[in-house]
């Protein structure tokens, strides 16, 4: 190994423990380490040895070495690896191979410009430390494109590995808007996401985003389920979804044996949306305009989105004042209480108790004089089977879907948007646990 004077170990193809400690690549020796003002430069090589032509096997003529510059895992400074790569020539004029250069896949893939371990490091940073390609590229002292070109094929390989779908027994489906641009150039604004909601032995859910496909439609979900194959579909016992008919008919058609369950997260959101609608309508009819600063109903907008159990005394007082400011505001309060009843069904510690509360919602909301609440009641009655199934499938709590949505939001903000849908998919799968990095990926 090495300092400015070179490796003191004999040049041998045996692993050198000291060089291995520095570079971590067996058989690659460190010749020099130079600390410059902006970067650390490490010169490495493999010892000379007899080499056969890869095509005909004839012993090749050594043609000396040439330097290839690689970017390695940075420390305080970027690290550049100067690899003194060996070159050969096949002496057989009939062979056609001609000159060829040394390859060392443990160090770098052919034509790669980042070391294998730098690629693995970068993927780990993206996955676990919410890093961005731009930030990592800066630390590596490479262009954004250079880093992405090195990372992308590894993520594609991981995403293409069907074994990551094995042992999924509980499947969620959800959609989000991924761009607000032009549909003609970027395709549909919505993406349908499949989420693994399977419990571990201890009953905990470690949600993973399994995939993202363009569009929000029955077809998007059916096609994805078809691609996964019979074995995968037969293994799904519970299929969670938001109240969207397209997904439901995909489940009925493709997952005959699965129980469809309305995702608690989405149902609670419907309740919150109803309160918002009633507040806006009452606001408009009492004041003749949309919410303005100082309007009592606008002031309690956030309080109305919270759960009653989370309100402080001060918030309760504000809520009461705003409701009492005008008789017409009573309607907003009733809608809020309805949303609270809906939440309470999911929050009940006992599933039988929760189911009782859910049935009460089903039996009362649709006759409510507040039209928005009645409409929600009719929706829930249409979905009553999937709504009540939550309480018989051992509850699928809100956390997982929300957590995945949160990660997607975070990474979108960090990257300041994505132009390319395939890149977006790979990055979101990595961030939200859909790609299995253990054991570490083999960089092609
Ligand atoms: Zn040859």
From TrEMBL:
Signal peptide: none annotated. Residues 108-152 form the Transposase IS204/IS1001/IS1096/IS1165 helix-turn-helix domain. This is ISL3 family transposase. InterPro entries: Transpos_ISL3, Transposase_DDE, Transposase_HTH. Coiled coil: none annotated. Pfam families: DDE_Tnp_ISL3 (PF01610), HTH_Tnp_ISL3 (PF13542). PANTHER family: TRANSPOSASE FOR INSERTION SEQUENCE ELEMENT IS1557. Residues 171-428 form the Transposase IS204/IS1001/IS1096/IS1165 DDE domain. It comes from Luteimicrobium album.
